[in-house]
Amino acid sequence: MCAHTFTLDDKLVEKISSQFTSRESMWLWLQRELELLVIHHADGFAKADVRIELSRLSQRIASLRQLKAGWDGQAALAPSPKALQQVAMVVSSMPEDILSSCAIFPSNDSCVYLQGRFPNGRLAAYFNGETMTYILKSPQEQMEKKNVAVENESVKQLAQSIKQYCMA
Amino acid sequence: MRSDKSIDYDAPSIGDKETLIRLLCSPLYYDEATGQVSIDAFDLRMLGRKQNQPEHYASLGREKFFANKEERQHYLQVGYTVWDDKEWDSNRYYGYGTFLACEAKAISSRIELWPLKGSAPYHIGLFYTASEDAYYKGPLPKDDTEILFMLSELAEMIEDNIEKAPERELLTTDGESL
Fold first, then answer.
1. Mutating which of A53, A80, A96, A107 best tests the B interface, going by the most B Cβ atoms within 10 A?
2. What is the pTM assigned to this prediction?
């Protein structure tokens, strides 16, 4: 699948953003409305890349937002918005080749899982709305991290470890 | 001494080479795009609408007690009954995964398989030991990496042995096929 990139000029971005209370809400709306387009900022410009895998997982997150308590047929709690926000942040920072092996699942206790089945390893990550706990398994390395803050640096480190140990 | 009131300690134990079945009662337990089973598929849940009944064990079926295809098929229908009939939707029960008892036990020393009191012989429980004198009740603490690892290994164990659920049969109130 080809990835196409194009640039939205500043005037257009300004015109669109005037309809929203914040830039963040505008990007969220665009992601929802433009099925295959995922918007991100780079070098001060707004770019739209066709990211099929991110779109697939974003749609999954959107569908999990609709889950109600009792989704497992018993007394499961609905996924918490914070946990969904965390997993959305993580997947939006991951490259397509990693995401193509990833799946997102709800947990019965209101948390969310991000699981990866890579060519040479596995990821099991659990998001509780505050932190993430994950295990990365590969023949070369088994990495366990508990209660990690979900922020750019930790996500970057996770993506690097997946590439290094599970994609080689 | 660890014990649980659900366990039938007098019943014969489960053989290591027995094939066991885990029903995936929701499509949310399996991702067709990547072929992955959710870690939640083996977690202990909260039962009942008011969250007042923590699950003690994950329910499993024993292949060897199904004398024929019809009996097995009948057991596989249980996946449909987990759901409230009013909200019934044929897409909700995804299917089931099979594995050997020894595969599950090899994953963690916390895993125990026990026959259940007052239950049909084909229905057993997968218990998780919490300490020397207690089993876990649901849900398990997944921010404990040992628990997360154990549940993820159980999910991976059945990933390549997943079958789609059979078509739903209409049953009488006694569970007999119409």
1. A107
2. 0.84
